[in-house]
């Protein structure tokens, strides 16, 4: 993925203190960072504070920022995830499992009839419950790779693992999810009667 030439230019200008460039980075990345924080905290005020702190830390560290193959969004995500970890450490408990996809898209007309929509929502909730049963690292890799759609390299950076380790974790997580589907009567992604 990496940085586009345009984003490289904006970051270079932001390093020089160009307020328009700093604003462009915020406008471009704020929605994603806010949704990430909201998905992890379920509290709009806390999510906004974490998003603000993310940009404050990123801009404070911008003179030391080193360009890598990762997108700038990945850099911001790592900062946000560290702040979210601190948020839960202060509160003494772990973050809830939330479907990040719910926060990354607007309202979409699926064309489903009301009864179909209810069944779809029930299946989605069942999948989220099964996802919560995965070990922490497997759950995270599914969230990053499948729900957020991040590339292997970006996921590896966020999880501080190699690309091969991320692929292996994903493979194990999907295998475990499949087993959980079968155990819970949801073969083929369809809820069955138990």
UniProtKB/TrEMBL annotation:
<dbReference type="InterPro" id="IPR014284">
    <property type="entry name" value="RNA_pol_sigma-70_dom"/>
</dbReference>
<keyword id="KW-0238">DNA-binding</keyword>
<protein>
    <recommendedName>
        <fullName>RNA polymerase sigma factor</fullName>
    </recommendedName>
</protein>
<dbReference type="InterPro" id="IPR039425">
    <property type="entry name" value="RNA_pol_sigma-70-like"/>
</dbReference>
<keyword id="KW-0731">Sigma factor</keyword>
<dbReference type="InterPro" id="IPR013249">
    <property type="entry name" value="RNA_pol_sigma70_r4_t2"/>
</dbReference>
<dbReference type="InterPro" id="IPR013324">
    <property type="entry name" value="RNA_pol_sigma_r3/r4-like"/>
</dbReference>
<dbReference type="GO" id="GO:0003677">
    <property type="term" value="F:DNA binding"/>
</dbReference>
<dbReference type="InterPro" id="IPR036388">
    <property type="entry name" value="WH-like_DNA-bd_sf"/>
</dbReference>
<dbReference type="GO" id="GO:0016987">
    <property type="term" value="F:sigma factor activity"/>
</dbReference>
<feature type="domain" description="RNA polymerase sigma factor 70 region 4 type 2">
    <location>
        <begin position="124"/>
        <end position="177"/>
    </location>
</feature>
<feature type="domain" description="RNA polymerase sigma-70 region 2">
    <location>
        <begin position="25"/>
        <end position="92"/>
    </location>
</feature>
<dbReference type="GO" id="GO:0006352">
    <property type="term" value="P:DNA-templated transcription initiation"/>
</dbReference>
<dbReference type="InterPro" id="IPR007627">
    <property type="entry name" value="RNA_pol_sigma70_r2"/>
</dbReference>
<dbReference type="InterPro" id="IPR000838">
    <property type="entry name" value="RNA_pol_sigma70_ECF_CS"/>
</dbReference>
<dbReference type="Pfam" id="PF04542">
    <property type="entry name" value="Sigma70_r2"/>
</dbReference>
<dbReference type="GO" id="GO:0006950">
    <property type="term" value="P:response to stress"/>
</dbReference>
<comment type="similarity">
    <text>Belongs to the sigma-70 factor family. ECF subfamily.</text>
</comment>
<dbReference type="InterPro" id="IPR013325">
    <property type="entry name" value="RNA_pol_sigma_r2"/>
</dbReference>
<dbReference type="Pfam" id="PF08281">
    <property type="entry name" value="Sigma70_r4_2"/>
</dbReference>
<keyword id="KW-0804">Transcription</keyword>
<keyword id="KW-0805">Transcription regulation</keyword>
